[in-house]
User: Fold these one by one.
Assistant:
Number 1:
Amino acid sequence: MNNQVIYRQINKDYAYWIEKRRLGQSKGGQVAGLLSHQVEGQVKQNILFDAGLGTIEGLADSCADSFWDEPLLIFITHGHVDHHAELMILSEIYCQRRGRDFRDVRSPLPVFCTGETQQHLFNTHRYGYTAGKTLHHRPLTPETPVQIGIFRITPIPVDHFEGAVIYLIEFELKRRHKIIIGWDTTTLPLQQIEHLCQPSLALLETTTWSSLAQEIGHSGVEDLITTGFLAQLQVQFQPEQERYGAYLVHYSGWEDPWGMLTDAQLKDKFDETFPEFAPVVRVAERGQCWSFT
Ligand SMILES: [Zn+2]
Ligand SMILES: [Zn+2]
């Protein structure tokens, strides 16, 4: 049986992706990822992580139109608007878009998040939860896993914002896998390292290069190294073993004294400064995907 999981980084930028056009980046959007379990080429479950600006365009660029007819759930990390701006538009398209039969409209999209996050979502997307009825909150408790098909998804609390979590996804096919949806973080979750360590793939926030978390509330590249988090995470890059290492997302660079770097410059600077981690850390590309069996 052809049983596989694909994770795709739909978009990988922070709120300032618009400025990246000055650096020659023609398309972008705020961090969002799509996890997909497929059997014999048929999608059993899609799970979207976050739904900020550019998510719908990213899905349209990366996925076939059949995406809109496949089973979908949404997990939101936290209430900052760059992580859910397009939530209601997306649910309206998903639920109201007619299938072959014009009566073919769908029930509300389940949205998994903490109670605090839900308050922000409700205030922003009230119509979807009430009159539009295209959204349905499914409460999450930090550190309490939920099972969605083959996926065990654990919300890991972080101090980035009220109710904020990152997600640990675990599943077993021929191999056992862990994927870390590691955005946004202020203090890196070192106390959870034994759950997070040795992932198949880790998407990690680095909004800046410099350590500015006290000022801006976001982890930088330096924090990954100086706290020991990256070393203790024990990422490996062995694609033939489906160990894909760590990928940086949510990079802005706007706040660094020297300003924004291109993704290529960021990788070069990383490799020069931290050569011991160069083999296992890369910058995520928009639309990039990884497969797991
Ligand atoms: Zn945030
Ligand atoms: Zn953010």
Number 2:
Amino acid sequence: MTTEIKICMGSACFAKGNQENLEFIKQYIEENNLDSEITIIGSLCENKCEKGPRIIINDKEYTNVTPDYIEKILKEQ
Ligand code: FES
């Protein structure tokens, strides 16, 4: 099954940590050879900035995400 990761690229989420989160995900994909299994998509601000940084993995929303948290979620996929 492929995993779709949508990362909020709105300025608030990006500044609050999605810049690092995006780098982390790219690195995670590379290190684990998951190129064909994980798709990254950028999304626009959905006015939930106070809960940011926001990431949606397979249609499930995660808020206040950090690289550690993302790693945990991805390992469970
Ligand atoms: S910037 Fe992500 S919800 Fe607004």
Number 3:
Amino acid sequence: MTDRDLAPRSADFSQSVMTELVLPQHTNAYGTCFGGTILSWIDIAAGICARRHAGAQAVTVAFDDVHFITPIRLGDIVNITARVCHAGRTSMEIRVEVWRERHNGDREHANTAYVVFVAVDADGRPLPVPALTLGTEADRARHDEAVERRQLRMTKAKRAAMR
Ligand SMILES: CC(C)(COP(=O)(O)OP(=O)(O)OC[C@H]1O[C@@H](n2cnc3c(N)ncnc32)[C@H](O)[C@@H]1OP(=O)(O)O)[C@@H](O)C(=O)NCCC(=O)NCCS
């Protein structure tokens, strides 16, 4: 039994925006932000977005390749935006964009990651999630790409489970 609202939801409904400041404890010996710290921020932003979409707690099940394109440095502001691009039966793919902001306000794209979350009940069992409504052309394009990624990801997941 569930009293959760499973009515379809838009990506706007759950979009989450996070802003961080790179402090000395976030950096390596070269003055750039640790990759692991950025991954952790990506995971948190995506997790908030997944939880909002699902209306339930959600766990990370997969992280796609992440490529660090631009170094993020001490003192930079980091802007992170997470948005659902696909909802399956119990899983959600979240697209996370990371932008570095300099002191003068200039912004540079640092990386984009795709993270998959599964909504779970208190015993960790998968729960159904609301369908995703696709309101814009961009949302529809992102959704089509997500369907392709999902197929590829599940092939990789089967291989990983056999190791
Ligand atoms: C997430 C978890 C509950 C899924 O359990 P499961 O037995 O694989 O459940 P199912 O086979 O029913 O799959 C559930 C959904 O996850 C998706 N999924 C499972 N493994 C996946 C993977 N490696 N990559 C992407 N999606 C995956 C399935 O496609 C399915 O999606 P759908 O319902 O939208 O079609 C389980 O794998 C788990 O607890 N993993 C550990 C999570 C964790 O500890 N994360 C880190 C801390 S938050």
